[in-house]
Each structure stands twice: as structure tokens, then as C-alpha cells.
Write a structure and sequence with these properties.
heterodimer, A: alpha/beta, Pyruvate-ferredoxin Oxidoreductase, domain 3, 7-stranded mixed beta sheet, 7 strands, B: alpha/beta, Rossmann fold, 6-stranded parallel beta sheet, 5-stranded mixed beta sheet, 35% helix
């Protein structure tokens, strides 16, 4: 039998080296999952993370939830940074960081977290209509308690809880929770991969001109106000 | 985004005409082409997928390069045109991008366009990454012109909606258009169809032999890993296509990092051209293999094709995958699932080597999370329409046949107003069948405005023609909402570079169309005016229930989607008047009405100021503070 020259044959997929190269352990790799409710601004958060990494010269793959789930359903954004990554979805138990926009969605995305990964979460719930109807209102306290338990046991290395309500009240806009959370995350993101300066530059690149200043203030807000658990 | 990569490739190819019908996950291709249009490309949202493909065919017959986009089920609508086109052939490159949706994430089926390509005898390219979607779209134009056939590019959701950095520098150079040349080849009489069939049968083997050497296919050899295992006599074959190829590479990398098991020598086959299948390459791959495992989403296409090639070439390889229960049968593949299935596959031959991957300590949440299905937005006019119908029909037996769009979400509690949803257009036709066999009930057809123009007109005509007692409801929110707010004929707004603000004056009027078709009772209502809407519905119910048959009644519920309207001042709940009866919550299920520390409150961030709740509260406790 004849086997075609595999190196030449596969250049089109740009993934030729991956078959024999381990990526998970690479120091230059970072997997982030962004979890929230459709309409909360998770897509822009993923885009800003990806843009920031690109500006630091790193290859990035992202995947978004677009379509029906965007209508108030659970949405996940995947951001994969590093060489030799072929696919856009973060594998289970592989995320270095979860950024959760809402306690229930943060907990729902935990299967993606690697043991000892980090979590940034907003503490205010978005109550689903089904919960409001059920006479068993959901207030997020059980979810936050569970996250703290995992942080105490070391399953989560660092848990950063963000009072998004206070932040957005201070900033004067409810639309910037996403960037407030990124600001909080920047405290624990490896600066070599995603720096605060790169995130700021990403805002300048991706955000509409009239909202750039507001988003920059939102980015700067959290490191000082976010509460380290 | 993969969809943007496809659009950029079309521009680089000098595309002259781009058209499609919105459908997740394909919609951003046309949107990107419109946004990046250097001026020379004619871009439109067509009325439906069949219209789009036929329009592109006309452009192609005239020598232009054209691209047509749709989602998987859109191809069902365009199938009539697709089946004929390869018989006639094309002149200018015609690339048909059909986005499949494994999961499904936003679709009503998990159909596989690779099979459709084979049925229609149209070559098909299947990208594994957004980069490859770019390269394949470019190659597809060349392939289409070289062989005079339409070419399918079939990305899946995780290609369409995943993003990479891609910055191809090029100047848009429009493809020169020679113009239409008359000839008998363009008229598909039976004799021409016979000739065309022969042409197809001559063309496909040529494409197949080109595909055998295509850069989109590959065979890779991977040495044994882990050391401990005795070297196997023959390597094991692993085949994959589409995003599953990318998942396979990452699964192998993950396995290398984790060293869960010793893996034997592997021979990998990437299939980027599923139809016509690269038989020669497949035969090379299979030669000398004992076992083969196939990873793919949707149908077992590669698995079946490899089995066919093995049989035709008398090769002893055993092909395993979906059909043998070794891989995921329905829904998406993932890196983790493929890694686990690989380990499971090899653990049978190496029982000592495989083990369960270490579970993340945090992997299994022990708290009961609230379910969070998608719902109608706060301020959505569909909520008001459904609630008004429900109120008007209180105590009467009714059936509510809806259609494909945001309004399908009216099935959720507490509205619970969607009894059937089949496919685009069936909202108007399914109730006609029911009305014939259970005349004691009132039958509603519920359809959005974009769907009405795409697929509802023939169903409405049928109800008039056959004088069927149904109530045809157009839920007119002035936009194609679910797919991301695209314009449609009812808005008049166009995507092409010669569009003007005056386009809105050309908007098609659903009520006028229904009247012109002969619907004897047509009412237009603003669903946020609750009482008037309930009255109109009662009128319609009387019209179709009483006296001699007069055909259908129609109601156009007209109020804009929140994506194309400005929020109004949000009301508040007067806690002094509120009795906590929670009727507002139980009746309409608006996400902006929440219970906070026992009080019913309006979430000022979510509320859009539609004022539906104010009209429901028995205590008049909800209102905008003066």
C-alpha cells in the first residue's frame, strides 16, 4: 500500500502537529469557560478574552452559544488559548478558570473545571421563571455555599465572588457586569497570557466608541472591590 | 467566526451574488458578506431557501459566482432546486453552504447534509476547523467551475460559531460575468434529464479521483505510546471527519498528557471530502488494518463508506463506530467522549492498561440547580398575543398549532400555548387537517411574520380555497427574531448595497395579502392592548364556529420585537396595594417579575415597559410611578 506524505497532506487543517504533541500540560495554554444566562453579555466577555490573548501574540479558539438558548437559557462560552489546540470546546475537567455570571450557572459549569482551577462568580442570581413559579424561590445561597466548600477543600484554588449589583450601581450601568467580572478575573489570570493592559486594549478594539470609557471603568473597578474568599 | 471565514473566502473568490435565508447556525455568513461588501457583491436575504438557491442558479447560469447559505432544514425547502441543478450543471461557480447542527442545539432535526449531497449527487466538503472552512469555500468555487456542478460546503455549529484569528489580505476582484448563453441544456425536459444523468455519472468519478489527492483528506501515522504494551502486529485505524477530526487530535493530545493507557500504533484517516468518497485513499488506509474505529457526528456516513470500500476491495478490516455501538449515536461529540471511547475500545484488547480518568473533585455538583430553559424575553409581544388567546378561549376547547421561531417558546409554562410545531409553514396547515376531523374544537395556526412570507402563503391560500374553519394568526414582530434580527419582506429593509431608507415603503403587508387572498375576516391588533385583542380573538372564534363555513379568519398581531424597539419606562409594584396573589407571575411568566424577600417586584434591569402585567393585576397595583 501507499501512504501519502502526511505532513504535506494535512497543512490545510493547520493541526498537523497536534497528533503527537501534548497541549494540556503546556505552560502557554489556558482554557476558560464563561457561563451565564442568555442576554447577560457572555459573548462579548469571551471575545474580549480572546482579543486580549491575540494581542499578546497567542493563538486562540473560541466557541459561543448562539441561537435558541440565547433567549434566557443557560449559555457557555469557551476560550482556548495556546499552540496545538485543534478544537474549540474546553474538555470536561480541563478549564483553568470559570467566569460565572450567576451562581447557579457557575455551579452548572463546574464539570468543566480542572481540579484546582479558579472560579470568578457574580453573586446575584437571575431567577428563572420556572423557579419563580415553583414557590421555591432560588436565591443562590446554596450554590455560593457549595462553591465556598470547594474552595475550602482545595478543589477550587481561588474563588473570587463579585458583588455585581454594587459594581454596576457604582458604575451607573447594569450592562457592564461582564467586564466587571473580567476585571476581577484579571487578578488571577497569568499576565503573560492575558494582561489587564491587553484587556483594556481589547475593549478599545471591540466596544462601540461611546461605551469604551464605561467599560474601561468597569474593568478597573473589580480588582479593588472584588472580595477574595 | 467560522461563518465569517466562509464569507471572506467568498469575497476572495470574487463572488458576485450572495443570498440565503436566516437559520442558526448559518446566518452570520450573509451578514458578514453584507457588512464587508466592498460594493460589487449583490447580497440579499431571500424569501426562503428555495428562492435563494434558484436565484443563485440564475446568476450562475449567467456566468456569475454565487454563494447560497442556509441551515440543514433549509435544504429540505430548497431540495427541489438542488435535485435538478446537477442535471443542468452550472457555469459560474455555485457554492451552497448548508450548516448542520449536531445536538441539535437550535434545530428540529439532526439530519446529515453529507447524505443529502450523495442523494443529490453534488460534491461535498466538510471542514474540521474555521481555517479549513475558509480554504474549502475557496476551493469549492474552483471545483464548481472545473466540473460545472454546484458544490456543497457543510460546516457544523461548532465550526460556524467558533472563532479563530484570520486576516486574509486581498482586494476584492469581482469574477468576470460572461452573461447567459441560450441553449437546450438549460431546459430540463426528460431527454435533457437523461443526458444530464449521464453527465453526472461521468463527472463524479473525476471528482472522486481529484478528492483522493485532496489536501482536505489525509492519512497520518502515529507511533505506539505508553511503552508497556506489546507492539501490535498491525496498527489500528481511526477515521474521522468534520469537527470530530479536531476533537480526535485533541483527545489524543489529552491522552498523551494523561497517559491513561498504552495505545498501539495508530493510522489516522481524515475525511474532508465525504462525497464523492475518496475511495482510493480509503483503500490505502484500510490496507493492512485489522480494526478501524470511526468518529463522526450525525449519520454513520464515513463508517458506511469505509465498509463499502473494504467490501469492494476484499479488505478484511472490521469497521466500527455508531453502527456497532462504539461511538456516540446522537448529539454532539466532544474531546472527552472521544478520549473515553478510545480508551474503552483499547481496554478490551489491553484489559490492564485502561482506567477511568481521574474525575475532577468538583465535577459533580451536589446542589439542586434550577432548570433554565430558553423563554420569551421580557417585553416580547408574543407573550401578550398568547395570553390574549388564552383568555379569549377560556373554557372553550382549542388547539394551538405553532411554527418555527421565537414564538415556539410559548410552549413553556405558564403560557403553555403550543400544541404542535413541525416545520416551517406547518403552523397554518396542521390545524387545517385537525379542523376536518374534530370540528367541535377551535383551531389556531400561529406563525411569525418572517415565516409567513417564507412558508405560510401557500397554507393560507389552501385554507381559503377549501373554506377551512381555522384562525390564522400572524405574530408580526417586524423582524426575523430567533436567528438574530434579520429583516424580511414584511419590513422592506434590504441587505444589498443599493438599499435605501425608503425601502420600508416597499414592505409587504400581511393583512393586505390575506385580504387579497380572499380571507373574509382579517383583523389587525396590537397585542399589548389586551382587552381589544381579546375581543378580536372572540370575533374570530365566532366567525369560524358559527353559521355556514366562510373559510378562515385571520388576525395579525402587530408589535415590534424588543430587538427593534426602544424600552419604555418600567412600572413598579405598589407594595401597599399588592396582595401577593402572584397572578402576574402565574399568568404570563415574565422573567422581569420576580419575588424578592416575599414581595413581588419588577426587575428594572430586565423590564422593557410593555405594560402587559399592569393590565392583568386585579388590584391595579402595577404602574409607572408618576
Amino acid at each position: 500500500m501507499s501512504t501519502p506524505n502526511s505532513t504535506a497532506a494535512i497543512t490545510a487543517s493547520a493541526t498537523a502537529t497536534t497528533a503527537t504533541t501534548a497541549s494540556a500540560a503546556s505552560a502557554q495554554a489556558l482554557d476558560i469557560v464563561v457561563a451565564g444566562v442568555g442576554g447577560q453579555g457572555t459573548v462579548l466577555a469571551s471575545k474580549l478574552l480572546a482579543q486580549a490573548a491575540l494581542q499578546q501574540g497567542l493563538p486562540v479558539r473560541t466557541a459561543e452559544t448562539i441561537g435558541m438558548a440565547q433567549r434566557g437559557g443557560s449559555v457557555l462560552g469557551h476560550v482556548r488559548i495556546g499552540e496545538s489546540i485543534a478544537s474549540p470546546l474546553v474538555p470536561l475537567s480541563a478549564a483553568d478558570l470559570i467566569i460565572g455570571f450567576e451562581p447557579g450557572e457557575t455551579v452548572r459549569s463546574l464539570p468543566y473545571l480542572r481540579p484546582g482551577g479558579n472560579v470568578v462568580t457574580a453573586i446575584k442570581v437571575v431567577e428563572p421563571v420556572t423557579a419563580t413559579l415553583s414557590e421555591q424561590p432560588y436565591d443562590g445561597s446554596a450554590e455560593l455555599a457549595y462553591l465556598r466548600e470547594l474552595a475550602t477543600s482545595g478543589s477550587i484554588s481561588q474563588l473570587i465572588e463579585v458583588d455585581g449589583e454594587a459594581a454596576t450601581a457604582y458604575l451607573g450601568s447594569s450592562k457592564v457586569l461582564n467586564v466587571v467580572l473580567l476585571g476581577a478575573a484579571s487578578a488571577i489570570l497569568p499576565a503573560g497570557l492575558i494582561s489587564l493592559a491587553a484587556l483594556e486594549q481589547a475593549i478599545e478594539t471591540l466596544v462601540k466608541p461611546q461605551f469604551i470609557e464605561l467599560n474601561k471603568r468597569a474593568l478597573a473597578y473589580s480588582p479593588s472591590h472584588g472580595k477574595l474568599a | 467566526m467560522g461563518n465569517a471565514a466562509i464569507a471572506l473566502a467568498a469575497l476572495k473568490a470574487g463572488v458576485n451574488v450572495a443570498c440565503g435565508y436566516p437559520g442558526t447556525p448559518s446566518s452570520e455568513i450573509i451578514e458578514t458578506l453584507s457588512a464587508r461588501n466592498p460594493g460589487g457583491v449583490y447580497v440579499e436575504w431571500s424569501d426562503n431557501e428555495k428562492v435563494a438557491l434558484e436565484l443563485a442558479a440564475g446568476a450562475s447560469f449567467s456566468g456569475a459566482r454565487s454563494i447560497v447559505t442556509m441551515k440543514l432544514v433549509g435544504l429540505n425547502v430548497a431540495a427541489d432546486a438542488l435535485m435538478s441543478l446537477p442535471y443542468l450543471g452550472v457555469t459560474g461557480g455555485l457554492v451552497l453552504v448548508v450548516a448542520d447542527d449536531p445536538g441539535p442545539i437550535s434545530s428540529q432535526t439532526e439530519q446529515d447534509t453529507r447524505q443529502f449531497a450523495a442523494f443529490a449527487k453534488v460534491p461535498c466538503l466538510d471542514p474540521a476547523t474555521p481555517e479549513e472552512a475558509y480554504q474549502m469555500t475557496l476551493a469549492a468555487f474552483e471545483l464548481s467551475e472545473r466540473h460545472g456542478t454546484p458544490v456543497l460546503v457543510r460546516p457544523t455549529t461548532r465550526i460556524c460559531h467558533s472563532s479563530i484569528a484570520l486576516d486574509p489580505a486581498f482586494d476584492y476582484q469581482p469574477h468576470p460575468v460572461a452573461g447567459f448563453e441560450r441553449g437546450s441544456r438549460w431546459v430540463v425536459f426528460p431527454r435533457r434529464a437523461y443526458q444530464g444523468h449521464l453527465e453526472i455519472l461521468e463527472r463524479l468519478p473525476q471528482v472522486m479521483s481529484e478528492f483522493a489527492a485532496s489536501p482536505f483528506n489525509a492519512i497520518l501515522n502515529r507511533p505506539a505510546t505508553g511503552g508497556a504494551a506489546a507492539p501490535a502486529a498491525t496498527p489500528v485505524g481511526i477515521a474521522a471527519g468534520g469537527i470530530s477530526w479536531a476533537y480526535l487530535l485533541d483527545a489524543l493530545a489529552l491522552q498523551d498528557a494523561e497517559q491513561q493507557a498504552a495505545l498501539p500504533e495508530l493510522r489516522l484517516l481524515k475525511v474532508g471530502t465525504p462525497f464523492p468518497f475518496p475511495d482510493q485513499l480509503a483503500a490505502d488506509f484500510l490496507t493492512g488494518l485489522g480494526e478501524v474505529l470511526v468518529f463522526e457526528e450525525l449519520e454513520p456516513w464515513i463508517e458506511n463508506e469505509l465498509t463499502r470500500v473494504a467490501g469492494a476491495c476484499h479488505l478484511p478490516a472490521i469497521i466500527q463506530g455508531k453502527l456497532t455501538g462504539h461511538t456516540t449515536l446522537a448529539g454532539e461529540n466532544t474531546v472527552t467522549a472521544i478520549r473515553d471511547q478510545l480508551l474503552g475500545f483499547f481496554s478490551s484488547s489491553q484489559p490492564a492498561a485502561a482506567s477511568t480518568p481521574a474525575a475532577a473533585t468538583s465535577a459533580q455538583p451536589t446542589v439542586n440547580l434550577p432548570a433554565r430553559p430558553p423563554i420569551l424575553c421580557a417585553g416580547c409581544p408574543h407573550r401578550a398575543s398568547y395570553y390574549a388567546i388564552k383568555r379569549a378561549m377560556r373554557g372553550k376547547p382549542g388547539v394551538y398549532c405553532a411554527d418555527i421561531g421565537c414564538y415556539t417558546l410559548g410552549n413553556a409554562m405558564p403560557l403553555d400555548m403550543v400544541d404542535t410545531c413541525v416545520c416551517m409553514g406547518a403552523g397554518f396547515t396542521v390545524p387545517q387537517g385537525m379542523a376536518r376531523v374534530q370540528p367541535d374544537k377551535v383551531h389556531f395556526g400561529l406563525m411569525g411574520d418572517s415565516t409567513f412570507f417564507a412558508s405560510g402563503l401557500t397554507g393560507a391560500a389552501n385554507a381559503v380555497y377549501n373554506q377551512t374553519r381555522v384562525i390564522l394568526c400572524v405574530l408580526d414582530n417586524r423582524i426575523t427574531a430567533m436567528t438574530g434580527a434579520q429583516p424580511h419582506p414584511g419590513t422592506g429593509i434590504r441587505m444589498s448595497s443599493d438599499a435605501t431608507p425608503a425601502d420600508a415603503a416597499n414592505a409587504l403587508d400581511a393583512a393586505a395579502i390575506l385580504r387579497a387572498m380572499g380571507v373574509r375576516q382579517v383583523q389587525e391588533v396590537n397585542p399589548f392592548e389586551l382587552q381589544a385583542t381579546i375581543e378580536a380573538i372572540r370575533e374570530a372564534v365566532r366567525f369560524v364556529s358559527e353559521g355556514e363555513p366562510q373559510g378562515p379568519s385571520a388576525i395579525v398581531f402587530k408589535a415590534p420585537c424588543i430587538t427593534v424597539s426602544k424600552p419604555q419606562p418600567a412600572p413598579e409594584v405598589d407594595q401597599g396595594k399588592c396582595t401577593r396573589c402572584k397572578l402576574c407571575i402565574k399568568a404570563i411568566g415574565c422573567p422581569a417579575i420576580v419575588v424578592h424577600k416575599g414581595d413581588v417586584v419588577i426587575d428594572q434591569q430586565q423590564c422593557y415597559g410593555c405594560h402587559l402585567c399592569e393590565q392583568i393585576c386585579p388590584q391595579n397595583a402595577i404602574g409607572v410611578p408618576s
